[in-house]
Design goal:
The chain is α/β, with parallel strands linked by helices and 143 residues long. It is 30% helix and 25% strand. The chain has a seven-stranded parallel sheet with strand order 3-4-2-5-6-1-7, with helices on both faces. The longest helix is centred in the last third of the chain and has 16 residues.
Length: 143
């Protein structure tokens, strides 16, 4: 069953996502970044190219012909990954394919609307019996 990890009180949602994606990639895990909003998809794509300045996380869009051989995919097509390790949700709703993944990452900022959406997603997973892990980022020196 999918483990669902919530990272709450994030000051920089995409920055935390980049850190978690880098950690998963370093562990040789395949990652799908679920980004149903094109602006968010473009922002995380740009961030993975540029941050930090001296590193690079190999990634592409799920529509790319290279998706099947790239460890980090941005988009909504879960079938673009050869294996289902980590799903990072950058959408407001639970991804329709989350149960295919070993781990789902949810990042919630301190913005009221994001907190409300995060609580809805939390209840959604909890009510379906998923294992939930909480990480409070308030005192962890996040970027």
């Amino acid at each position: 069953m999918t483990e669902v990890s919530f990272y709450s009180h994030a000051t920089d949602k995409l920055g935390i996502a980049r850190q978690l994606i880098a950690k998963a990639w370093a562990q040789k895990l395949n990652v799908l970044i679920y980004a149903p909003d094109e602006t968010v998809a473009a922002d995380i794509d740009r961030l993975l190219w540029t941050q930090p300045a001296l590193s690079f996380i190999p990634h592409c869009r799920d529509s790319s012909p290279l998706a099947a051989s790239t460890p980090v995919i941005i988009g909504m097509n879960a079938d673009a990954l050869p294996s289902a390790d980590v799903l990072v949700n950058l959408g407001e709703e639970p991804p329709p394919v989350f149960s295919r993944f070993e781990r789902l990452v949810e990042i919630v900022t301190e913005e009221e609307s994001d907190v409300l959406k995060g609580r809805q997603r939390y209840r959604f997973y909890r009510d379906r019996g998923y294992e939930l892990v909480n990480h409070d980022l308030r005192n962890r020196g996040q970027q």
